[in-house]
Write a structure and sequence with these properties.
The protein has 191 residues and is α+β, with helices and mostly antiparallel strands. It has three helices and twelve strands; from the N terminus they run αβββαβββββαββββ.
Length: 191
């Protein structure tokens, strides 16, 4: 009888084993991450604009409002690829050996944008046209627009009147009523 009981118990356990394995598989499947919905295609680059930023360049998706920073220190190839996709190919590239921070390479892009690179890393920018900061200030702004944005201190230097817009620096045109240039990070200005 003990043998019969032991045999019956063993058969019952064996019969339950596949179900236990099935339940374990179901539990594992339920706990496993489900594939995410298909990742939406990136927004058309025509809806993304470049904004000037004190930490680098900010890419702004005008459709969603989301932003992505290309920070100073980003690899040169990555930076130029991203900017080329948005504003077009560089119109000129080169190297300047005698700059304050040391040798710098540069790439000039459409829309008056010049990027500076030090040892293969993005290290500065200059803008002379309509690209704006997140607050809407461009190198085409007037002194009145700067003052409305909170700029009140202008310093006379060898490059004309200069100002600081929260880590973004500017140089005024002769006469001091219009911005000539915005910049931050490395540059090769001769003073």
């Amino acid at each position: 009888m003990n043998r019969t009981l032991a045999l019956t118990a063993a058969l019952a356990l064996a019969a339950c084993q596949p179900q236990a394995q099935d339940r374990a598989a179901e539990r594992d499947a339920a706990e496993a991450p489900t594939p995410a919905a298909e990742t939406p295609a990136p927004q058309d680059s025509s809806s993304t604009i470049v904004a000037l930023d004190s930490e680098g360049l900010r890419l702004v998706d005008e459709t969603t409002g989301s932003t992505r920073l290309i920070p100073f220190g980003a690899p040169q190839a990555e930076t130029t690829t991203a900017i080329t996709a948005l504003v077009g190919n560089a119109t000129e590239t080169g190297q300047m050996e005698e700059c304050g921070p040391g040798p710098l390479s540069f790439a000039n892009f459409p829309q008056g944008l010049r990027l500076w690179f030090s040892q293969g890393a993005f290290s500065g920018w200059e803008s002379t046209e309509a690209l704006t900061t997140m607050s809407g200030i461009s190198a085409e702004a007037t002194r009145a627009e700067l003052e409305a944005a909170g700029v009140s201190d202008f310093t006379r230097d060898t490059l004309e009147d200069e100002f600081d817009l929260g880590g973004i620096y500017g140089v005024m045109e002769p006469g001091g009523q219009e911005v000539a240039l915005l910049h931050t990070g490395d540059n090769c200005f001769m003073r």
